[in-house]
Amino acid sequence: MRYLDNRAQPRGAQTNKGTPMSELRFTVEHEWLRQEANGLVTVGITAYAQDALGDVVFVQLPELQAYAAGDEVAVLESVKAASNIGMPLDGEVVEVNPDLEASPELVNAEPLGQGWFFRFRPADASALAGLLDQDAYERLLNAKADA
């Protein structure tokens, strides 16, 4: 599980926010999602993604509005490349991380914590269960490493 954080994470490990890694969901585009107690979903990128990008120097966050799954909602620029962040599920973005504008390096320093991008209200909260769980995401990363 070397890619979910910058160091190996034993089973039952937690994110910087204290959420068990097993409670996160993941996309094949290397985004993580965390269901909050208030029903909102927080989105960020995994350590694997931030490592592939290199040092993030700019983040353009989404507008507060409704998006369809797959819509490009945010842009990351790094010393290596630019990358778009897609909306993982249908829903309405209701909050963005205000710290990223002044400190885009948080994406690299704390990808599973203070480096989150936005929170949204999903159109269908049950759709979160259709994303990758921790085990499936680990298999995806291992397949990439073996390729």
Automatic annotation (TrEMBL):
InterPro entries: Biotin_lipoyl (IPR000089), GCV_H (IPR002930), GCV_H/Fam206 (IPR033753), GCV_H_sub (IPR017453), Single_hybrid_motif (IPR011053). Transmembrane segments: none annotated. Residues 1-20 are annotated as: Disordered. CDD domains: GCS_H. Pfam families: GCV_H. Residues 40-121 form the Lipoyl-binding domain. Its cofactor is (R)-lipoate. One of its GO terms (cellular component) is cytosol. Keywords: Lipoyl. Gene3D superfamilies: 2.40.50.100. Binds 1 lipoyl cofactor covalently. GO terms for biological process: glycine decarboxylation via glycine cleavage system; protein lipoylation. SUPFAM superfamilies: Single hybrid motif. It comes from the Bacteria. The modification N6-lipoyllysine is found at residue 80. PROSITE patterns: BIOTINYL_LIPOYL. The glycine cleavage system catalyzes the degradation of glycine. The H protein shuttles the methylamine group of glycine from the P protein to the T protein. PANTHER family: GLYCINE CLEAVAGE SYSTEM H PROTEIN, GLYCINE CLEAVAGE SYSTEM H PROTEIN-RELATED. Belongs to the GcvH family. The glycine cleavage system is composed of four proteins: P, T, L and H. This is Glycine cleavage system H protein. It comes from Phytopseudomonas argentinensis.
